[in-house]
Amino acid sequence: MPPTITAFDRSPDGGKGLARDTRVRWALEEVGQPYEVRLVSFQAMKEPAHLALHPFGQIPTYEEGDLALFETGSIVLHIAERHAGLLPDDTNARARAISWMFAALNTVEPPILELVTARILEGDKPWTKERLPLVMDRVRDRLKQLAARLGDADWLDGAFSAGDLMMASVLLRLRTSGILDEYPNLAAYVARGEARPAYRRAFEAQRAVNTR
Questions:
Q1: pLDDT tens per residue across all 212 residues of the chain
Q2: Can you tell me the distance from the alpha carbon of 67 to that of 4, in angstroms, rounded to the nearest whole number?
Q3: Cα separation, 123 vs 75, whole angstroms
Q4: What is the C-alpha to C-alpha distance for residues 36 and 3, in angstroms, rounded to an integer?
Q5: pTM over 0.85
Q6: 5, 57, 80, 212: most buried by Cβ count inside 10 Å?
Q7: What is the DSSP string of the chain?
């Protein structure tokens, strides 16, 4: 039986690929693993059946036989460890790829999510005008460091890996802010990720749900 993932029945982003199920879809497409999707509403996400899979009432979840996982990092790592294509064979290179996965989620994504909150959810608050530049500077600090490390390489550590999948997915959230364009090598890096056939298949699959 193929694994089953959950996704929004109607994503808040309208199908732009920013919902986290896209990351899992991308990983499954990269390794050539068929999968099924169970769509859930916002109401269903807070009900006992879904909370048994994801204690925080979010998406995506991943079910494979008796195994149920939540959190995209753990799901993508599980996929990468079970199937060839997302982690190098070399032990040290494999460990570095996993480090980049953690860096994407724990170091780069938090200030980006803070920016999303400041711009969209708190945009009408009286403190936003003063707070927003500070948040943007925190994002730029991380991007400057990441851009310096990437340099003129195509990927973060040799061949494309799960680390690149997670990092590119995180950076995609910056597209509407314009900040990513300040770092041409990072913008090109994200574009390379989006150009991968596996990403295109994942993106189109989630967009089809939101444009049906």
A1: 899 999 999 888 888 888 999 999 999 999 999 999 999 999 999 999 999 999 999 999 999 999 999 999 999 999 999 999 999 999 999 999 999 999 999 999 999 998 877 766 665 666 667 777 888 899 999 999 999 999 999 999 999 999 999 999 999 999 888 999 999 999 999 999 999 999 999 999 999 998 87
A2: 11
A3: 32
A4: 6
A5: yes
A6: 80
A7: ---EEEEESS-TTSSSS-STHHHHHHHHHHHT---EEEEE-HHHHTSHHHHTT-TTS-S-EEEETTEEEESHHHHHHHHHHHSTTSS-SSHHHHHHHHHHHHHIIIIIHHHHHHHHIIIIISTTSTTHHHHHHHHHHHHHHHHHHHHHHHTT-SSTTSS--HHHHHHHHHHGGGGGGS-GGGSHHHHHHHHHHHHSHHHHHHHHHHHHHH--
| Residue carrying structure tokens 């298949």 | 201
